[in-house]
Write a structure and sequence with these properties.
The protein is mainly α and 353 residues long. The protein has a domain of 113 residues: Leucine-rich Repeat Variant, CATH 1.25.10. The chain is built from 20 helices and no strands. The protein starts with a helix and ends in a 29-residue tail after the last helix.
C-alpha cells in the first residue's frame, strides 16, 4: 500500500512539474532510447495536412542516411502545394527506383513547371540520361524559380560533371539562384562560390541574408568569423540564429550553449529557429537535448526537432573532426566579383574582440 501511495505521489509531482513550465509537455528520452523516433516523427509529418510540415519532412529525408517508405511519399506528388510536390518528387528520385518511372512520366504533365522539372530529374535518376538536358535548359530559363530549382536538383544528382554548367550561373542576377548554385557545388565537393555567398550576407532582403549566412557556415573559414560576429547582431531572428549556428559550427562552444538555451525559450518562434539551426552545427551531443522535443504537442516544433536530429546523425564526420580538418592558414584574398542587384556592399568587418 505504501509503495503504491509513493508511486502515485511521484506521478502527481511529475505532472505538476510539467504543468508549471507553461510550454509543452515533454518526456525525457535517453540518447540510446527510441533511436527510430526522429524518423517516425518525420514520416508522421509527411502525412500531415499542413504543407509546411510535409515540405520540412521531405527536405529532411533528402539529407538523411535512409529514405522513408515509398508509400508514405508517393501521395505527396499529387497534393495541392507545388513546393511539396516538387520536393516529394526529388525525394522519390533519389531512391533511383525504376518502378517510379510511370509516376514521373505522369508528373511531366503537371500544371507547375518546377514540378515538371522535378519529374524530368526523376526520369534522369532512374536511367534516362537524356533528361539531364532539361535541367541544363532550365538553368538558362528566364524564370528565376526554374533556375533555382534546376540548380538544386543538379546538386542532388551528385554528378560532378554538372559543375561546369553550374559554374556559369554564379553570375546570375537572381540572388537565390546564386545561393542554390553555390549550395549545389558545395554538395558536389567544389568550394567555388564562397565569395558570392559572403557578398550575399549583405543583401537587402533578410531571407536572402539568412540563407547566405547559413551557406557561409557550411562553406566559410575562420576568416569569416568577424563577419559572422557582426551578423549575430541582426534584428532579424533568422539571420541572427543562422550566424550563431555558423559560429557554433566553427567550434564556438559559447554559441552552441546559446542555441541550446534558445531552444528552451518561451517564444515558440525562437524555439523552432534554434532547434532548426542546431541541426546545422554538426554538434552531435545536441541530439540528447533535442530528443525530448520529439514529444512536443506542437507539430512544427516536433518536426523541426526530428529534422535536426536526422541531420546531425547523418553527418559524414563528427563535429570535432570537421573543425580540426580546416587548415590554420588564412586563405588568399578572392578576386573581385560583379555585384548582384539588391546587394549592399559590406563594410570592413569588425576586429574580433
Amino acid at each position: 500500500m505504501k509503495r503504491r501511495l509513493a508511486l502515485v505521489l511521484m506521478m502527481t509531482a511529475a505532472a505538476l512539474a510539467a504543468g508549471c513550465t507553461g510550454q509543452v509537455t515533454r518526456s525525457v528520452r535517453g540518447p540510446a532510447e527510441d533511436k527510430d523516433a526522429p524518423y517516425a516523427a518525420l514520416v508522421e509529418a509527411l502525412g500531415s495536412p499542413q504543407p509546411q510540415l510535409q515540405a520540412l519532412a521531405a527536405e529532411a529525408f533528402l539529407a538523411a542516411d535512409r529514405r522513408p517508405p515509398l508509400e508514405d511519399v508517393e501521395p505527396l506528388a499529387d497534393v495541392p502545394d507545388p513546393r511539396v510536390r516538387t520536393t516529394a518528387l526529388a525525394l522519390l528520385a533519389t531512391t533511383r527506383r525504376p518502378q517510379l518511372t510511370d509516376l514521373f512520366r505522369r508528373k511531366e504533365r503537371d500544371a507547375d513547371p518546377a514540378v515538371r522539372l522535378a519529374a524530368s530529374f526523376g526520369l534522369a535518376m532512374t536511367g534516362d540520361a537524356s533528361r539531364v538536358t532539361d535541367l541544363r535548359d532550365a538553368l538558362a530559363s528566364p524564370e528565376p524559380t526554374l533556375r533555382r530549382t534546376a540548380a538544386w536538383l543538379l546538386g542532388l544528382m551528385g554528378n560532378p560533371s554538372a559543375v561546369g554548367m553550374l559554374r556559369v550561373k554564379l553570375d546570375d542576377p537572381d540572388a537565390v539562384t546564386v545561393l542554390r548554385v553555390a549550395e549545389a557545388m558545395h554538395r558536389l565537393g567544389v568550394g567555388e562560390g564562397v565569395e558570392r555567398v559572403r557578398t550575399l550576407t549583405g543583401h537587402d532582403r533578410h531571407l536572402v541574408r539568412a540563407f547566405a549566412t547559413r551557406m557561409l557556415g557550411r562553406m566559410g573559414t575562420t576568416a569569416d568569423i568577424p563577419r559572422l560576429e557582426k551578423l549575430c547582431q541582426s534584428r532579424y531572428l533568422d539571420v541572427k540564429y543562422a550566424a550563431i549556428a555558423a559560429l557554433a559550427r566553427r567550434g564556438d562552444l559559447k554559441r552552441i550553449g546559446m542555441l541550446l538555451d534558445l531552444a528552451e525559450a518561451p517564444d515558440p518562434q525562437s524555439r523552432v529557429l534554434a532547434i532548426t539551426e542546431l541541426g546545422e552545427t554538426g554538434y552531435t551531443p545536441a541530439i540528447e537535448r533535442l530528443a525530448p522535443f520529439l514529444d512536443s504537442k506542437t507539430p512544427l516544433e516536433r518536426t523541426a526537432a526530428a529534422a535536426a536530429i536526422v541531420r546531425l546523425r547523418s553527418a559524414q564526420r563528427s563535429w570535432r573532426d570537421q573543425i580540426l580538418m580546416e587548415p590554420p592558414q588564412t586563405p588568399p584574398p578572392a578576386a573581385p566579383v560583379t555585384p548582384i542587384p539588391g546587394t549592399v556592399a559590406p563594410g570592413p568587418a569588425p576586429r574580433p574582440r
